[in-house]
Write a structure and sequence with these properties.
Order of helices and strands: EEEEEEHHHHEE
Radius of gyration: 22 Å
Shape: elongated
Helix content: 25-40%
Oligomer: single chain
Length: 144
């Protein structure tokens, strides 16, 4: 996402992942689209700011998408068992509510609800090899 400020004082939010510049214009593209999504004359642009969604998430939830340590997992389980809400645990740990739910599901503390994006990883049959598989029947949240 880009914020493009113009000399007339307006700012446009443009869903774009690539900018190309020719002699007269800045062209905004989305990867995979054959045509630009926006075009701005170079003489009309004051600034272009890139918004990184992951950076925004980290400002709001500093530990979002970071690996869990065994100590962090134990602390989340203890907090949950003391009766803290998932929202309270998320706030105190700097993680997202979905991340806390996912970890509690993965650890077998709570059951997934309809609508939770989870994947059940089956254990390999005798003699089979399943690279990256976790122990039998563990539930883990799909990334996203």
């Amino acid at each position: 996402m880009l914020s493009i400020s113009s000399v007339d004082g307006t700012t446009d939010e443009v869903d774009s992942t690539l900018i190309t510049i020719d002699e007269r214009a800045a062209l905004c593209w989305r990867i995979g689209d054959p045509s630009p999504v926006a075009r701005y004359g170079l003489d009309t642009i004051v600034s272009i700011e890139v918004h990184d969604p992951a950076a925004r998430a980290r400002r709001e939830h500093p530990n979002a998408n970071r690996r869990w340590t065994p100590d962090e997992e134990a602390a989340v389980v203890a907090s949950f068992q003391r009766g803290e809400t998932i929202k309270e645990i998320a706030t105190s740990t700097g993680r997202r509510v979905g991340g806390i739910r996912s970890r509690l599901i993965t650890l077998g503390i709570i059951e997934p609800r309809p609508g939770d994006r989870v994947a059940v990883i089956a254990s390999p049959a005798a003699g089979d090899s399943l690279a990256g598989a976790s122990p039998a029947g563990e539930v883990s949240r799909a990334s996203g």
